[in-house]
Amino acid sequence: MSSSERKQIKVGILGATGTVGQRFIQLLSTHPYFVIHALGASSRSAGQRYGKVTKWKLNTPIPKEIGNMVVQECKPDAEGFKDCGVVFSGLDADVAGEIEEAFRSANLIVFSNAKNYRRDPLCPLIVPLVNPSHLSIIPHQKKTLGLEKGYIVTNANCSTTGLVVPLAALEKAFGPLQTVMVTTLQAISGAGYPGVSSLDILDNVVPHIGGEEEKIEWETNKILGGLNSDNTQFDLHSNESVKAINVSATTTRVPVIDGHTGVVSVKFSKSPAPSMEEIDRAFREFRCEAQELNVPSAPPQAIVVHDAPDRPQPRLDRDLHNGACVSVGRVRPCPVLDVKFVCLIDNVRLGAATSSIMNAEIAVEKGLIV
C-alpha cells in the first residue's frame, strides 16, 4: 500500500514547544498520513495558542493551522490525546519518565526521543536505518505489562545514531566488530534551547558532555545486538555467542548550530581486515529495512560517502536527503586499529525527530500501529 493510500493516523506531540518538538511539527505538518491532532507542553503553556507560547527557532514558519492549535497539558486524558494512534515525545528526560509511562498505561503508543526507557529490558531502542527488527519485542512488552495496546519505543542518543549506521554497514558486510573508538564534535542544538552560553561555546571547544560517553558506549551494543528466539530478551552483544563490542567514546561540544561529527576508528574481529576499497563499497551499498519498506521518511541513501578530503562538514552536508542520512568521509587505514573515518548526522532530524517518525512509519508497515 502506498503512503497516499493509507488512512490518516492522528498523532500527538509531547514537549511540542521545545527544540525536538518544533522539529516534529515541521516534519509531521506535511506527512502523507500522520496528522497532528494534539500538542502537549508544560502547564505554563497549556490552554494557550501554540503560536503565542512558542519561541519558534526553525527556518520555516509555524504552519498556520498548528499556530492556532491550543496547547494541552501532557496528560493522557487531555483533550485530543486519547484519540491519537501514536504520540511522539520530545520531552526532556527530567520529566519524560513519568509522563510517558502514564500515556503507555492509558493504552497509548509512545515513540520517545528521551533517554528514560532506553535501558528498559522491555523497550526497543531503535535506529530506523539499523535495527527495526527489535520492534518484535513489543508484544512481549504489552503482555508483561498487561496492556492491550500501549507500548513505548525509544530512539537512540543522537551521536550514537550517527555512529551505529556506518558500524551496521561494516558488520553486515564483514562480520563482528571488536573495538570502536569515537570522538564526537557535537552541535550546540544538542543541548536544547537556550543551550550553551555564548561565553562558554564561542571561540571554544568544551571537552565534556555529561552522560554522553556512557550512552554511546552502552547503546551501541544494544542496537547492534539482537533478540532471542522468543523475542522476549535483548542479547546486548554481550552473551557468549555475540561478544560485546569494546566502545570507547570521548564527547565534545563545538560552536556548530546543527550537525554532530564523529571521528571513528574500528578494529574488525576477523583477520586480515577488509581492504579500504571493500569498506568503501560496503558503505555505499548499504541498504536497510526502512528503505525496503519504502516508508515516507526513509532516505534514498542511508549512507552518503564523500570523496573530497575535507568532507563531510556540518554546514555543507547536514541537509542531505532532508537530514535523514549519515554522511561518511575520509575512509582510510588506521595504524592502530583497522580503519578510520569521519561521520556526520543531523542531530535534530535523524538524530532525534526523524528517527522517531521513521520508527513509527516502520511500525505502521509491521501492523503495530493501526
Automatic annotation (TrEMBL):
InterPro entries: ASADH-related (IPR051823), Asp_semi-ald_DH_pep-lack (IPR005676), NAD(P)-bd_dom_sf (IPR036291), Semialdehyde_DH_NAD-bd (IPR000534), Semialdhyde_DH_dimer_dom (IPR012280)
Transmembrane spans: none
Gene3D superfamilies: Dihydrodipicolinate Reductase, domain 2 (3.30.360.10), NAD(P)-binding Rossmann-like Domain (3.40.50.720)
Keyword terms: Amino-acid biosynthesis, Methionine biosynthesis, NADP, Oxidoreductase, Threonine biosynthesis
GO biological process terms held by the UniProt record: methionine biosynthetic process; threonine biosynthetic process
Signal sequence annotation: none
Catalytic residues in the record: 158, 260
SMART domains: Semialdhyde_dh
EC numbers for this chain: 1.2.1.11
The Semialdehyde dehydrogenase NAD-binding domain, residue ranges: 10-138
Gene Ontology terms, MF aspect: aspartate-semialdehyde dehydrogenase activity; NAD binding; NADP binding; protein dimerization activity
EC primary class: oxidoreductase
Pathway info: Amino-acid biosynthesis; L-threonine biosynthesis; L-threonine from L-aspartate: step 2/5; Amino-acid biosynthesis; L-methionine biosynthesis via de novo pathway; L-homoserine from L-aspartate: step 2/3
Catalytic activity entry: L-aspartate 4-semialdehyde + phosphate + NADP(+) = 4-phospho-L-aspartate + NADPH + H(+)
Domain of life: Eukaryota
Family: Belongs to the aspartate-semialdehyde dehydrogenase family.
Its biological purpose: Catalyzes the NADPH-dependent formation of L-aspartate 4-semialdehyde (L-ASA) by the reductive dephosphorylation of 4-phospho-L-aspartate. Mediates the second step in the biosynthesis of amino acids that derive from aspartate (the aspartate family of amino acids), including methioinine and threonine, the latter of which is a precursor to isoleucine.
Protein name listed in UniProt: Aspartate-semialdehyde dehydrogenase
